[in-house]
Specification:
This protein is of the alpha+beta class. The chain has helices at 26-38, 43-60, 99-104, 126-156; strands at 14-17, 19-20, 63-67, 70-75, 81-86, 90-96, 106-113, 117-124. 43% of the residues lie in helices and 29% in strands. Strands 1-3-4-5 form a four-stranded antiparallel sheet. The protein has a four-stranded antiparallel sheet with strand order 2-8-7-6. A hairpin with a 3-residue loop joins β7 (106-113) and β8.
């Protein structure tokens, strides 16, 4: 698995990295164990093992990284979807929690850019990650304005 946090630009640093929750693995593993105990054939256990492995790989391939300049995300196994959006191009970021997500502590982070909507599922501490992204978006804008003001002051002198 390539870590997208290792592919940073010059003067770019990682602020936060979202963690994926283990919950999607629970059901396939339980079904695998039950199918081994209750069936005499290996068809169902093999099927549930494949589903559990697929789910595990899917969780391992989900990445969401916030830097001081952009939000980088990636998910998918066979066909992957990758986002790389500068902080000033993010239109909105929201958190969607279902009943089990509220109980177990995970949710879906939805990132809307000017061109696409990205859904990162089963993210732990998503409210905190969203808050960090919004703070960093504000910091990015402030830094951009300060740099423009300094450049303008340099030209006026």
């Amino acid at each position: 698995m390539s870590n997208i946090a290792n592919d940073l630009k010059r003067n770019e640093e990682v602020i936060s990295q979202a963690k994926v929750h283990w919950t999607p693995l629970f059901l396939p593993i339980v079904l695998f164990i039950i199918s081994i105990m209750l069936t005499h054939t290996m068809i169902l256990p093999i099927l549930f093992a494949i589903i559990a492995i697929w789910t595990f790989l899917s969780l391992r391939k989900t990445q969401l990284v916030l830097t001081n300049q952009r939000l980088i995300g990636k998910y998918g196994i066979i066909s992957t979807l990758q986002m790389d959006s500068p902080l000033n191009k993010i239109v909105s970021i929201s958190v969607h929690k279902n009943f089990f997500g509220r109980i177990l502590g995970y949710s879906t982070i939805v990132v809307s850019t000017a061109s696409t909507i990205y859904n990162f599922k089963y993210i732990r501490n998503s409210d905190q990650f969203k808050h960090t992204v919004l703070e960093e978006m504000d910091n990015f804008e402030e830094t951009k304005i300060k740099n423009q003001a300094a450049a303008l002051a340099g030209v006026i002198k």
